[in-house]
Amino acid sequence: MSVDMYRITEQPYYRPVGDEVALYEAAYRHRIPVMLKGPTGSGKTRFVEYMAWRLARPLITVAAHEDMTAADLAGRFLLEPGRTVWHDGPVTLAVRHGAICYLDEIVEARQDTTVVIHPLTDARRMLPLEKRNEILAAHPDFQLVISYNPGYQSAVKDLKESTKQRFVAIDFVYPPPAIEQEIVMRESGVDASDARLLVEIATRSRNLRGQGLDEGASTRMLVHAGRLLVAGVRPAAAVDAAIVLPMTDDAEMRAALRDAIAACL
């Protein structure tokens, strides 16, 4: 199977916040696996897309989930008329063809899936395919990237230290207000005044983290709200639909958020 379908042909918009681009390029130059840590909606996936475009490498993305098995990553034999045929999984495809493989929210996957990635994240750079009795050496351009949100981790859902220490880590946080306003304007099309208002709302919601909220409003949420505003939705309704309602189901917390937002509006 060709990986050309996984090439990003147009430059994704990404606004650097710190030295994350230089860090990633250095890691890729030495084929060091990369771990992205940060809250949801803070730009981790967009960053990987941007770097894949910048490095001119195909990007194969896997959204991890609790039912994902090692076979889902490596591949399996499937029945076809009169025979069984091996089908590469996404990790195997990336390993064969030198793509960047991005495992998004890796802690959501079953812990036994890490047996697939461990041999790829040390000096061996190989993938054992037990069902094929094959050891596949990684293409020179292959790189593995994982991401997760440390805010949601628990004793049950966390990466083992033996896994974490195989990666270099880049920490993602929400951008400073001026940069976040720039991003919201660029991504949603709102004007500077509305972008400033949305960022102020996000700041107030983030101050409630740990007081009933696991996370404050993400940059992604602000972009959604901005797009609703551009479409003509009233500000209060746009913010309620894009920020308040998705963030919590608790009636008291919704009321507290709406009070904080009303002060901005």
From TrEMBL:
Keyword ATP-binding: yes
Occurrences of domain CbbQ/NirQ/NorQ C-terminal (ranges): 180-263
Keyword field contains Zinc: no
Superkingdom: Bacteria
Pfam families given in the database record: AAA_5 (PF07728), CbbQ_C (PF08406)
An MF annotation (GO) of this entry: ATP hydrolysis activity
Entry keyword set: ATP-binding, Nucleotide-binding
Domain ATPase dynein-related AAA span(s) in chain numbering: 33-167
Stated family: Belongs to the CbbQ/NirQ/NorQ/GpvN family.
Name of protein: ATPase
Species assigned in the record: Acidisphaera rubrifaciens HS-AP3
